[in-house]
């Protein structure tokens, strides 16, 4: 018996909960050489900006214990080329696409939303809030509820009602729940967490920072517990809000942790650098784990770890009732 | 494609390590210039990035084998150096853009420094098969770091060796010997694989002689398949615009004169999308 892996991101149905994490699937074509992208729950694009961006100088990457640091600097083609070349390629193939956007001002995010509002093939819009706010001394939007909410409210008011707006949150905040709540109050239909926390490594031969940009985003299995904690806290405070759990997922068991903490979808990022087939493998492993525990539907496992101590999992209770004559 | 390959043999080649791995799908599709990426540290590894390795030889035995050459630089390559026969390796490949080959039987000079020379041998075989004349210029810091001198002598018309300490061949760098080799062999094209500084100098020499030069760059990569965006360098496109392109997907082989070697490690101000290169398009 197979497990029903369908999941809902707000009102949008995904065939399975596994998505690529923003910025980890380039234009989509690169992974399409390895597997059929239709087998993903959804593909999340890199964060698209208004103008083309060359990104940061190299070295952009440093391997760290159970993870890596990156400072790519949102290298990308800009919205014009994205709408001309990348999105149509995905849309023509009918690949569910979560478009990630990044900007330096509220006006830039709004303009991006305006450009994407009528573009065919946008399954959902993910707002990367970990971009420096040009109007706030370069501090990132995600660090404060009011700045994040301003962006989300503006984007939500422009985007078509049937395209969910997802706020991507950063873990580098004192209280992630308050930022999450501010985004939801501003109209976010779902939340995605976590973006890379900032880290740094120093090259002990060159006696300098390993990255040209000095600091970079930490990703990989090192940040999984951080992601589980954030998803747990936000799901506890806002149980009705769909969450995409992202951060250091390498196996189906990692994904299962995020699901049990409250995520209804799971983003896979750094694992793709290690294994181009990671999304398919993780989806298979997650389904296997659910089946072994008697789940018939993924939805029954979402947030299940929050049940009070001593109470039996609901899906097993249903099972017993059915088997009683 | 991804292949779980079995290590057939391991050997030391001068200062370097070589692993022969049974990897049928990769050997079949391989063309000179392609590389593979390998996962290091085993199934419970804490090392999340793959290592990009150059292919030195491809054979059809056992359904297809590839020989990979590397030097120990850190914990990942140290783990690879400890692999023994019958161990398995997780390989993805063949990756990258291979060397373009000339249509006519022309004279080619192949320039390699340190273990960058490894990729030139399958290229030499392909050129010889097309009736090209092949001459090698190989170099390194010392005699034990000149890769493949014996094999080069066997297959090439002439082989010129250089070492910085003078322990083998001419004292100096490959680029010190290159102009006279190009002149003597009346070369029509140059192929090179070496550290960035050497490639820059090789390109300068080839441009002086006004002959085409194809270079294979060695950039640090995390994924090797074009998704991580970390191995970029500034390259001039057909339209004259400079873009930050990926060494793994658009390379590793480039036309030498298109690579802005002096700007590697920076974002040139005139590159497409460079900071300050254009006003933010906000209406």
Automatic annotation (TrEMBL), chain A:
It catalyses: (S)-dihydroorotate + A = orotate + AH2. One of its GO terms (cellular component) is cytoplasm. GO terms for molecular function: dihydroorotate dehydrogenase activity. Substrate binds at residues 70-74, 128. Its cofactor is FMN. PANTHER family: DIHYDROOROTATE DEHYDROGENASE (FUMARATE) (PTHR48109:SF1), DIHYDROOROTATE DEHYDROGENASE (QUINONE), MITOCHONDRIAL-RELATED (PTHR48109). The active site is at 131 (nucleophile). It is found in: Cytoplasm. Pathway: Pyrimidine metabolism; UMP biosynthesis via de novo pathway. InterPro entries: Aldolase_TIM (IPR013785), DHO_dehydrogenase (IPR050074), DHOD_1B (IPR033888), Dihydroorotate_DH_1 (IPR024920), Dihydroorotate_DH_1_2 (IPR012135), Dihydroorotate_DH_cat (IPR005720), Dihydroorotate_DH_CS (IPR001295), Dihydroorotate_DH_I (IPR049622). Keywords: Cytoplasm, Flavoprotein, FMN, Oxidoreductase, Pyrimidine biosynthesis. Its EC number is 1.3.-.-. FMN binds at residues 128, 168, 194, 220, 247-248, 269-270. It comes from the Bacteria. Catalyzes the conversion of dihydroorotate to orotate. Belongs to the dihydroorotate dehydrogenase family. Type 1 subfamily. It is an enzyme of class 1 (oxidoreductase). One of its GO terms (biological process) is 'de novo' UMP biosynthetic process. Residues 8-290 form the Dihydroorotate dehydrogenase catalytic domain. Its main location: cytoplasm. Binds 1 FMN per subunit. This is Dihydroorotate dehydrogenase. HAMAP family: DHO_dh_type1.
